[in-house]
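Researcher: Please predict.
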Amino acid sequence: MRKDEFDKIKQHVKSDDSRFVASRSPFYQTVRMLAQYYARMNTVLKPMGIDHARWRVLSLLVEHEPITVSEIADDCVVNISTMAKTINRMVTEGFVTVRTSSADARSTEVMISDKGRALLDKTREKTAAVFQEALGGLSKTELQVLNSLSARIFENLSQ
C-alpha cells in the first residue's frame, strides 16, 4: 500500500460510524494483511514441504507442549474438526506425535517430533525474513501498540 493510500484510510476512520466502508474498516484491512502474510508464508514454506497452517501448529507446540487438539484449535481460531484433520496429517508425515491425555481421556495431546522440530528449524530463516518484511518500518512501540490493540479487539469479540 502506498503512503497516500494509507493516509486516506487514516483520515476516514471513524469509530462511531457503524456503516461498512472497506477503506475505514480495521477488520477489512486486517483480512487483507493476513491474506498477504499467509500467501507470502506459503510461498516460502512450500519448497520445504509444509504450509502456513502446519507451520503455525509446529510453532505453537514449541511454546506449549504438550497441548490438546482443542487447545490448538482455540489458539489458532480454527474449527476443532479442521484442526484434528491437520494434526492427523502431521502425524502421518511424522511432524508430531499424539497420545490420550492422562488428565482427560476424551482429549488428545499433541507433541512435536524430532522431525517436526528439525523442519521448524529449517524454516526459521525464511519465515523470519517474511516477518521482518511485513513489519518493516514499524517501531518497537508501534508493534507493541498493534499487538495490544489486536489482543483487546480479540478479547472484546471473545466475550
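Model: The longest helix spans residues 114-134.
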